[in-house]
Model the fold of this input.
Amino acid sequence: MGLEYVKISPGFEKYMPRDYVDLVEYGQFGKELDVMQMGQFKELVEEHPMCAGCYMAYFIRVFYAALPKPEDTIVLGTAGCARLALSQAAVPFIYGNYGDTNAVASGLKRALSIRFPDKDKDVVVMAGDGGLMDIGFGMTMHSWFRREKFTTIMVDNEVYGNTGGQESGMSPKGIQLKMAPTGKKFDKINAVELAQTAGCVYVARISPTNPKRIAKVIRRAILAARKFGPTFIHAYTSCNIEYSIPTREVLADARQREKKDFKFYEWMTDEVKEYFNEIEKKAKEVKS
Amino acid sequence: MQEEKKVIVPGPAGYNPKPAAFLGVDLPPPGRALLYGEEVDEEKAMREAAKAMLTRGNPTIFPGPLVLWGWNAAAMEKAKAVLELAQEIPNCRIIPMPDYRPKYPKIDPEAEINPNHPNLTILHNKIEACIFVGVHCHYANLSLRMIRAGTNCFTIALCAEMGHEDAMVSLRDQHAEEIRRFKDVLVQVRNEMGIEWEPKLPPENPSLPKEDWTKITPFDFGEYAALLMPRRGEVVEESE
Done:
C-alpha cells in the first residue's frame, strides 16, 4: 500500500501494458480529482462482468472515483454481485467468507493502525444486503458495537440476485420473487436506524441518482471513519434482472424510489459535524 | 541425468495434473536447486535453464509485481538485473504480470499474462521457454501448474524465497546479485554453444493504442449508453 506501489520500476515503463501506464500517468493515485471529471482520467475500475444495466455497477464505478486516497485503501467484499466488479479494480481487494467481512475488516484496520501509526489507511467493506443484514448480520453489528474505525457500504438490491432470486431481509414486504413466490411476510429491515443505535458516527441512505452526492457521502463516510468510528452507507442499487426492470428504466426506477422509501438521509454525531464544517470550510477557502 | 529421474517435465500433462509436491518433489535447501523435480547443484540447474532459454522457441520473461513496481530499492535493482538478463537472451520477449486481479472479458495475450489463465498468453505467443521472476509464491504455484497442465512450455522459476516444485528449473533465493550470476552462466553457455548475439533489449509492449480522451462517442459508455441517449419523442431540457 502506498504511492510506491504505483511507481513503475525504472526501465520497465516500455514493457508495461498501456492500461497500467495510463493508470500511473492519468489515474487517481496521489491526486485530488472530482467525480464530475469522470471520463477525463483513468478510472480504477473499467471492465466488469456484471449484467447489462446493473445499477450496482454504476454505483461501484462512482465509489472508486470518489475514494479520497485509493493508494491507501483496501476494499473488502463477500459473495454476491458487487465482488465481481470490486475484484477487478486497481485497489487491493479481500474476499471474505459469506458474512465475515466486518470481522475481517476489524482485524485488518487494527493491524494497519499498529503497522502504520502515523498514516491514514482506509478500510471499506462493500457487500450486499445478504452479506451484511442477513448472513453477516452478527458480525456487522458487533463491529459497530466495538466502534471499529472503518466504513461499511451496503449495496442493497433487495434480493439474492446471484442464486436465483430468494428474498432477503431487505426485500420490501409483500414482494414476490422467483424463489419466494408466496410473497415476503415481514417488513424491510431498517438498517439505517440499526446503524445509528449500534454506534455508527455517520450514517447515510442514498438512492444513487446524483454522482456528486454519492461522492460526497462516500468521502464523508471514509473521512469520519478515519477519526471517529464506524460509518455506514445504505445505497439502493436495484437488480434489474430479478426485479425485471428494463435497462432503460433503471435510472427512472432509482429516482422513483428516491421519492418514496429511499429519500436521501444523512445523520452524524455532533463531533463529526464539527469536523466536516471545519474541513469543508478550509477546502472552500483554498478554492477561493 | 537419467531419463527416469525426470519427474517434472514440460507438458501438456493434461487437465488438473498431480501437483509436484504430491509426486514427492521437495523444495531445495539453501544453495541447491530443482531440475525436473530433482535436487541438484545450483550451477547445473542454471546451465539447463540457460540451454532451454537459448534453444527453445520464443523465450519469454514474465516479470511479476515484485519486480515491475519500484516499491523499494531492492526491487528496482532486481528489475535492472532482469533487464540485463533479457538483453543476453537471443530474441527474448518480456510480457509482464503487473497484478493478479481477474480480467473480464479477456486479457490482451500479447500485452500481459494473468495468473488465472497463463496458458492464454503462452499458447497465443507459442512460448516454449519462460522465466517467472517477482511473482508472489501462491500465484507462481498456481500458474506454473496450469502451464504444465496445458502447454509444452519449459518453466524456470527465479524465486526470492524457497522455490517452486512445479517448475522444470527452480532456483531459490534469487535477488539482483544471483540473477546477474545466472546471466553470466547463460552468456557462458551461449558462447559454448556458438550462438552469436549482440546484447539488446527486447521489443516494447505492443499494447492497445492509447485512448484519446478528447473524442468520446456514445459507444464509449458501453451498456450505459442506453441510459444517456434520448428516446424517441423524449424532450431533453438544458437544465436537466
About this structure: The longest helix of chain A spans residues 270-287. The mean pLDDT of chain A is 94. Chain A touches chain B through 38 residues (CB under 8 Å). Chain A has one domain: 3-287.
